[in-house]
């Protein structure tokens, strides 16, 4: 969220820390992130096992340009109270 200001006076369900974010607004963001990840998993050249080994100590960094661009777009276009394009 990079320290963006949030306008005050929002009424409704709040999500963590009293930031004035409604649960429904956050669900939109997480749904878009999930869609981007599912598209990554559908890539036949991506091996999820390389990126989350059974040891749980982390694996390789995800280097997919498309996934990175999707996540960047989601982060840059989302604003509290607005949908995602």
Automatic annotation (TrEMBL):
Q: Which GO terms describe its cellular component?
A: cytoplasm
Against InterPro entries, the record matches this protein to: Longin-like_dom_sf (IPR011012), Sedlin (IPR006722)
Note the superkingdom of the native organism. Answer: Eukaryota
| Pfam families reported in the protein's UniProt record | Sedlin_N
Q: What's a GO biological-process term for it?
A: endoplasmic reticulum to Golgi vesicle-mediated transport
Task: Indicate what this protein is called per its UniProt record.
Answer: Uncharacterized protein
Organism, scientific name: Hymenoscyphus fraxineus
